[in-house]
Each structure stands twice: as structure tokens, then as C-alpha cells.
Amino acid sequence: MPQALSLPKEIRSFIWQQGFAIGSIQIQTLVEQFMLQMEQGKQKQSSLAMLPSFLHVPEQLHKNEPVIVMDAGGSNLRCAIAKLKQNKQGYALALEQEKFLSMPGSREAITKDSFFELLYQSIQNLLPFSNTIGLCFSYPCEISDEHDGKLIRWTKEVAAEGVEGLWIAEELNKVIKKQHGQAKKIVLLNDTVACLLAGTMHTIRKENQTHYIGFILGTGTNCAYSETKDRQIINIESGAFDGITNTPADKLLDSQCQDQGYYLFEKKISGRYLGNLCLMLLQIASSKKLFSDEACKNILDFSNQENASLSTETLNALLENQFSALVFNEQDFEKIHFLIDSVIERAALLSAIQLAAISRYQLLSQEHKQQSTNCTICVEGSTYYQLRNYQERIRHYLHGINHAYGIQYEFVRMEFASLAGAALAALQVK
Predict the structure, then answer these.
(1) Are 196 and 233 a contacting pair, CB within 8 Å?
(2) pLDDT of residue 91
(3) What percent of the chain stands above pLDDT 70?
């Protein structure tokens, strides 16, 4: 990262004026506000939904039968037959007949009937192998005690008209029964809940004194955590947190989204939006003539193109000045690199703030206070793992924020975490 002191004063001032300077963020205030909203969210009095999953952290597994698993994510839909196999470390996931498809409604708007028909078609050939389906559904849902989910609203720019407000498993079962002749037992859970469950697989047979967090940081973002008392898993819907002041770039990005005004925290840190947030900041800087005339023109021309966007891969290339659509001279590149790096740095800090708040909330809920506590964070998402230096920065900030609380963090990466969690959920209530 270029040193700020080597850059022109106007660039350093610009970062402060635009709200992306790390020193301007009140870290402890935000941690406490996030914790307060977690508590208030349980009474439906905050931006955090705090949705019960009616699933719990498993202590042991007695069933090891094949189940159908589905992962309806922000961009992709994965389906398979899943079996859990016990090993020395805990359990491992074995997948058969795996499919990798586009998430219905992620590329173009579709109708309700088309949405559920496409879900059915994705598992049509798998239905004879099990009577139980674990459906990981990466969108905010009100979960019933029968493990169905009523979609509250679409996020991640998915568009399937008429699905909001419906019970997803019930509607899918209508199609299954019509086409297949017999309904299935469907266990619907959020992707963060599935991620958290997957993170328990290597500790199921150990003394269970660990707190768990499921953290998704890919196309979108969200967190789930395990309650201290009854070990129930709560889907926070942390992407909706409204405690962060919106910068001009945040506002400009939000104005171009289908779900304008919603999930503003998600739009600050996740892969669907982070590259475009950088683009918004570069647009603003170009409008203020902070680069050469040629660079300003290139940025504004690119921004004005239809469907102009910056993916995680493109953002990494841009950080290396290897994105052919935007090539800059050395002086411009140092400025642009610094601005992009500042956006990512803020995103890493905000990610760490939410993790610090959740783990501290768990710690304070313990009946028997200990000198230290363990917190296993299972992370899934391409942005977390693929965006340059992102995970290292998040971990660095997390340890810095909570170093005085004696929390020992273990970050876990589980292969096919959403599908593994869906399988564990299906087996838990089968």
C-alpha cells in the first residue's frame, strides 16, 4: 500500500472528507451499538432481525443417512446428495451427483412460478434418493418451528416477483408433490446458520465449551451465532445494520441498487458492492480533478458505461494496475491505489467490528465467567478468501479490538460449508 505521507495533501484530505479514514471511525462506540442492536433486535426494535433458526449446535450425531442438500446462494445454486462420514477429527462431508447452476432470478427477473419450477428442476433427479431436503437459503427469512422460511425480502439484487412473503419450503413442496407425487421433509436454514453448523463438524465429539459464529462474506454478508444458554443458532441479518454513517460514495452506490435504503452495511463490505463502491469513490475524486485529465476522463467514461462494475477479480487486477479497461500512469496509479485500499481497509475494520461485537455479546451472556473463552468462526465466501489481503486485515483488527477480553479466536474454513450445514440441519430434525 502506498504511504499516505508520500501522496499529495489533497488526496489525504479527500479520504478524511469522504469518510474513509480509519481514524475517523469510532470503533468501541460501534461495537457497543452493534451489541445493543442485537439485544433490541430480539424485541424487533432494531435494524438487526435476530431471527431464531430453531436449530442448535449439535453435541453428537446418531444418524448418518443420505439427504438431499441445496445451497441457494447470491449467484449460484448448488445441489447434491450428501452423506456425513465420521473420522478422527469429527465428521467429513461426501457429495454425490453434485450440480452447479445459476441462482434463479440472479441474472434476470423471473416470476414466482418460474422460480419454484427452477428450484424443483435442480433436484428432480435427486428426489428418489432421500425423503429429506436440507435447503440453505441465503436470504432473510422468518423461520417457523417446522423449519420452513418465509422470505422477508430479496437481497443481493435477486429478482423473483411474488416470492417475498411466501413460505419457501411449502411452495417448493407444492411443485414436488405435483410433479413427483409425494412431498418431502424440507429443512430450510440461512446460509450463516449452515456455515456455523459446518464449523462444528470438527468439534462435535469434543467437550463443547466453544462459542460459534458463522460468517458469510461473499456476494453478500451476514452472521449467525450460537446462544450461550440453549445453544440455539440465531441469524442476525447483520447486513442490515444501520449504525454506520453513510459516506457520499455509499449514498451514490445505494441510489443505483434495486433495494435502495436496505442492507447498507452489506453494501459497505461484500463482494457484490465493494468493487462498485471503489468505483463510486473514484468517480467523486475524478469530478474533483484529483487525477490527471486523462485518468479522470477514463474513470468517468468507464463509469458511464452500461452495467459498469468491478468484481473482486477486477478489483485485484486494478490494485496491480493490470485492468485493461482502466490503465493509469504511475502518479495516478499511486493515488488510485490508495483510494481503493482505503475502501477495503474500512471494509475490513467494519467486518471486524461486527465479529468483535458478536463474540463479546456471547462472552457477556455466559453464566459462569471465565478468564478466557474460545470462539470458532467458520467463514465462507469468495470475497473473504480472494480479495487481496482482506482476511488478514479483518483478523488483525478483530484481535486488536478484543485483545483485552481474553477471547481466543479460531478461524475455520470448511469445504462446501453451506451444503455441510444443510446436511447437519436435515439430520438434526429428520
Answers:
(1) yes
(2) 73
(3) 93
User: Which stretch of 189-198, 318-327, 406-415 has the lowest confidence by average pLDDT?
Assistant: 318-327
CA-atom Rg of the chain in angstroms: 22
> What is the pLDDT at residue 1?
42
With vertex at residue 313, the alpha carbon angle to CA 389 and CA 98, rounded to the nearest 5 degrees, is: 105
Query: What grid cell was written down for 370?
Result: 471465565
Strand 221-226 to strand 210-217: parallel, antiparallel, or no bridges (unpaired)? antiparallel
Q: Of the candidates 244, 260, 305, which has an alpha carbon nearest to the alpha carbon of residue 279?
A: 305
Residue 318 pLDDT exceeds 90: no
What's the sign of the alpha-carbon dihedral 237, 121, 177, 417?
negative
Strands 185-189 and 132-137: parallel
Q: What is the pLDDT of residue 274?
A: 95
CA–CA distance, 317 with 304 (Å, rounded to integer): 20
Query: Which pTM value belongs to this model?
Result: 0.89
| Cβ neighbours for 405, distance < 8 A, ≥ 6 positions apart | 360, 363
Once rounded to an integer, what is the mean pLDDT over residues 179-189? 94
Could you tell me the sign of the dihedral formed by the alpha carbons of 236, 239, 243, 244, in that order? positive
| Amino acid, res. 175 | V
Distance in angstroms (rounded) separating the CA atoms of residues 103 and 358 = 30
**Average pLDDT estimate for 332-339:** 93
Confidence of residue 259 (pLDDT cuts 50, 70, 90): confident
Assign 3-class secondary structure to the chain. Answer: CCCHHHCCHHHHHHHHHCCCCHHHCCHHHHHHHHHHHHHHHCCCCCCCCCEEEEEECCCCCCCCCCEEEEEECCCEEEEEEEEEEEECCEEEEEEEEEEEEECCCCCCCEEHHHHHHHHHHHHHHHHHHCCEEEEEECCCEEECCCCCEEECCCCCCCCEECCCCCEHHHHHHHHHHHHHCCCCEEEEECHHHHHHHHHCCCCCCCCCCEEEEEEEECCCEEEEEECCCCCEEEECCHHHCCCCCCCHHHHHHHHCCCCCCCCCCHHHHCHHHHHHHHHHHHHHHHHCCCCCHHHHHHHHHHHCCCCCCCCHHHHHHHHCCCCCCCCCCHHHHHHHHHHHHHHHHHHHHHHHHHHHHHHHHHHHCCCCCCCCEEEEEEEECHHHHHCCCHHHHHHHHHHHHHHHHCEEEEEECCCCHHHHHHHHHHHHHC
